[in-house]
Amino acid sequence: MALKITSDCVSCGACEPVCPNSAISPGDDVYVIDPDKCTECYGWHAEQQCASVCPTDACLEDPDHKETKEDLLAKFQRLNPGKEPEETDKWQPLGRSA
Ligand code: SF4
Ligand code: SF4
User: Fold this and answer.
1) Cα-to-centroid distance, 50 and ligand 1 (Å)
2) pLDDT tens, 36-70?
3) Global model pTM greater than 0.85
4) Domain holding 62: CATH number?
5) DSSP 8-class letter at 97
6) Which of ligand 2's atoms lies nearest the C-alpha of 5?
7) Domain for residue 66, yes or no?
């Protein structure tokens, strides 16, 4: 499932540049993740980069956007045509929900 940013976000901006899918942008109050672009980093990294850098643990799984690995792979391929997915054997879901 895509990740979402909770009200614990302090708008430090650390997550925006580390997202491989350019899914994160500043919002009115907190940063926001576009669920159509978030692959939970599937296809790019073994771990969710935004959650790794967030100082307040504000990046969590969004229960309203449940997706299988196959869904995430399809999204990755749509967003990155022709790119081979990487680290899929090491990828793990975040395991923390909003
Ligand atoms: S989990 Fe990965 S793809 Fe999704 S918003 Fe965070 S950094 Fe971007
Ligand atoms: S890293 Fe965390 S606190 Fe900083 S902008 Fe992103 S979600 Fe907000």
Assistant:
1) 6
2) 999 999 999 999 999 999 999 999 999 999 999 99
3) yes
4) 3.30.70.20
5) B
6) 7
7) yes
